[in-house]
Amino acid sequence: MKFKAFLTENGVNLLERRFLPALDKMGKICHLFLTRDHAFFLHNLLSGDGIQCIAQFHKETLFDDYRISSQNEDRIAFAIDISILQRAVRSSVSICSEFGGGGSTANRLQIKLVKKLPPNCTQPMPFLTFETKGYKSAVIQDIPISKPLSRAQVLELQTALDMAQDLPQTLVQVPDLNQLQNYIDRMKHVGDLLNVFISKYGDLHVQVATTLIRLGTEFRKLPVIGEQAVAPSDEQHLSAQSRSERAVLRGDAQSVQVSVKHFSKSLQCHLAKPDCAFYGILPQSACLTVIFQFFVPGTRQTDKSISLHCRLPVINPG
Description:
Blueprint: E1 2-7, H1 9-26, E2 29-34, E3 38-43, E4 52-58, H2 59-62, E5 63-69, E6 76-81, H3 82-100, E7 109-116, E8 125-133, E9 138-144, H4 151-163, E10 170-174, H5 177-187, E11 193-199, E12 204-209, E13 214-219, E14 224-226, H6 240-250, E15 253-259, H7 260-267, E16 276-281, E17 287-293, E18 306-313
Antiparallel strand pairs: 1-5, 1-7, 2-3, 2-6, 3-4, 4-18, 7-8, 8-9, 10-14, 10-16, 11-12, 11-15, 12-13, 16-17, 17-18
Helix pairs in contact: 1-3, 5-7
């Protein structure tokens, strides 16, 4: 089992400034899953508890001279502490800048899997090692990782990953994540459960309700991807609650109940600086899905080399 690559300057910038800060908000520990063509950061795919987060990068997006081999179809997976990884990347960038006079980090920051014998231990332990080469010296940082997953565990992880790629039949585009975050921050003080309604008309309605108070907000006529429908004109005078209930009965909408904490946590993915976000509910109200879209810099074309999405577990299907 071998893995070795050089982090490109673009890869360092993506991880240090965008994705690792976002992924750290999802949870302390994640699985780093490496294949022949991709690198995945996966939260909670095996535990089935809490919000699932899937970040996928094509290998050329992060790495140069990418080499991987294993007896499991060249797939390697292990658990790693995101905060430690983030500190190592940040430290390596600082070292590269110091030794290189602020030049490019490309071809100077190597990452590889190794086994080493830690002090006071009798058995070698696995590490993800960063080696930063300067002009006269090299700095090595060892990040402790879990024992690499077995063949059966990798298969289980791959199966969970394949299942997590299912898309809702209707997705609505949310124009402003910061505005949505502000609303959710207020709702946190009201209750722990959030009712989410999504319609084929392009409506997104979120609400916290208790026996004493009901607080919600609605986004209407949002851009829709997938199945669409035209909203009845004779219902425009009704409240958001009434319109939502009628749309669900007609089969033009779905509603689910999720944790306010989970919903708020998913919004922290704005740290990865996506260009837009889409919300949708899987058939049978299996989960609430949030898909973050990234554009090729300077264009409105989707960057297919990067993807990020979250799956929020449903507490009470609507």
